[in-house]
Design goal:
heterodimer; A: about 90 residues; Non-ribosomal Peptide Synthetase Peptidyl Carrier Protein, Chain A; B: alpha/beta; Peroxisomal Thiolase, Chain A, domain 1; 2 domains; twelve-stranded mixed beta sheet
């Protein structure tokens, strides 16, 4: 569990560690889609689980739609982290 | 040609490529060389601390690096057993000079054997589940553990869309998978990746195996002594072999030059809980009849070698019943004395050895055989002679018997 913000370095680490992507494939471009990176549906679930585990969030299945591009994923996680701080 | 419902026994099945990952050698040539020399790969378990386990010795494949064969994307979603299977498949395809991208995808299938599936991957996830909570189990557990994972990943990696499956029959699985591959070829699929491997050395898997009461708890790497008067049980091991099987006519027409041997005959029986060697004898005789051969044609027996006094005695008796007066003359050997019992990998590796016996005329020895059981011609020192027909015997826990006849291709 961490209270750090969620950015490209954090997302890259998850993609490299848990999905096995080569580091240089994940550049800091919000428009890159998970499809373009070759992630199948199970890889997307693995990314969701990694986020849940590291940031102590519950991500409902319906929110998986937010994990379509790198930018969307980063925006979604930061919005959720912002919510839990406000309480 | 794609699969039909009626098998054509006129289609003959040959082995055209081998890939081996074994405790005494990674790669077919290093393994074969070590095996002919009687070099054991059995040692104290190093993958985890075995001191609290009743059996602490096994055939580990040391120095196996998945990154030598696979990209990380595939490594994170698969078990060690699948890594080995994919590596061995690569070796077999190269050995056969078969390029899957140049074949009709529906003309290629995969039939492997497995006994414990992705147990090491599961070990990590079970520890996550009970140590940290349900949230900490990864998504890839869903595809890494199950018995067909290696078959599945091979089909995906190489674009093989023909009839494929997995066989789970413990130590007999390797032969049963090859037999099912032969059935698949007879039904019209030209190429089948077959054989099997096992990676059963996780704490939880070892605990399951210890419960079968057949393992040796004697200290030291020589505790597994098949056919020795002082046998006390077996030692487990990891690894096995992938064999590329093809329809003979299709292999010839694509220009395949390495035709190791033909899968000429096969049979499987079950003890049904009864005592005695009758069903094992039946498997052997029926396999020979299936090959349209007789005991007089067999020039080498690759034995099951359970390593327990009762099971060894049964196998010796079955050989006597099948071979009669010749029982004391046909060379019998159990090279698995050098690597342990590999479950799904065991019989597959034995068939790879049998194919090389036919190809090279060199017979690997049985080690740790200080006081051999009476009456059979065990190979204990290097032996060279032309061999055209090998009988491979394999048994699985619970009373499964299988026998396969390998014959030189004319």
């Amino acid at each position: 569990m961490t209270t750090e913000p969620f950015g490209y370095p954090e997302l890259r680490e998850i993609l490299v560690e848990r999905v096995g992507l080569p580091e240089d494939l994940v550049s800091e471009d919000a428009s890159i889609s998970f499809d373009a990176l070759g992630l199948d549906s199970l890889a997307r679930v693995e990314v969701l689980l990694a986020v849940q585990q590291r940031y102590d969030l519950d991500v409902p299945d319906a929110d998986a739609v937010h994990f379509s591009t790198l930018g969307d994923a980063i925006a979604y996680v930061n919005a959720r982290l912002g919510e839990s701080k406000v309480a | 040609m794609s699969i039909t419902s009626l098998p054509d026994a006129g289609r003959r099945t040959v082995i055209t490529g081998l890939g081996v990952v074994a405790p005494n050698g990674i790669g077919t040539a290093p393994w074969w060389e070590a095996t002919l020399a009687g070099t054991s790969g059995i040692g104290r378990i190093s993958r985890f601390d075995p001191s609290r386990y009743a059996t602490r010795y096994a055939g580990e494949v040391r120095g196996f690096e998945p990154t030598d064969y696979l990209e990380r994307r595939l490594i994170v979603q698969t078990d060690r057993w699948t890594w080995m299977g994919l590596a061995a498949t690569q070796m077999a395809l190269e050995d056969a000079a078969l390029d899957p991208t140049a074949q009709d995808p529906y003309a290629m299938g995969v039939v492997t054997a497995s006994s414990s599936g992705g147990n090491e991957f599961g070990q990590v996830e079970i520890q996550n589940l009970w140590g940290r909570g349900v949230r900490y189990v990864g998504a890839y557990q869903s595809i890494a553990w199950f018995y067909a994972a290696t078959t599945g990943q091979i089909t995906i990696r190489h674009g093989m869309k023909g009839a494929s499956s997995v066989i789970v029959a413990e130590g007999a699985g390797g032969l049963q998978a090859l037999a099912h591959a032969r059935r698949t070829i007879r039904r019209g699929v030209d190429v089948v990746v077959s054989g099997g491997l096992e990676a059963p050395l996780s704490p939880y898997a070892l605990t399951c195996q210890l419960a079968n009461g057949q393992m040796s708890t004697v200290e030291g790497p020589s505790a597994y002594r098949p056919f020795d008067a002082d046998a006390t049980g077996y030692l487990p091991g990891e690894g096995g072999a992938i064999l590329l099987l093809e329809d003979l006519a299709a292999a010839r027409s694509r220009g395949a030059t390495r035709l190791y041997a033909e899968v000429a005959g096969y049979a499987a029986t079950h003890d049904g809980g009864g005592p005695g060697a009758h069903q094992l004898e039946r498997a052997m005789s029926t396999a020979l009849a299936d090959a349209a051969l007789g005991p007089a044609d067999v020039e080498c027996i690759m034995a099951d070698g359970a390593g327990s006094p009762e099971q060894d005695a049964r196998e010796v008796e079955a050989i006597h019943r099948v071979f009669g007066a010749r029982a004391g003359e046909v060379p019998v050997t159990a090279p698995k004395s050098m690597f342990g019992r590999l479950y799904a990998g065991g019989a597959a590796l034995d068939v790879a050895a049998a194919a090389l016996v036919i190809r090279t005329g060199r017979l690997p020895p049985t080690i740790n055989l200080a006081r051999p059981l009476d009456g059979l011609a065990f190979v204990t020192t290097p032996l060279s002679r032309p061999v055209r027909t090998v009988l491979v015997i394999a048994r699985g826990y619970g009373g499964v018997n299988a026998a396969l006849v390998l014959r030189a291709v004319d």
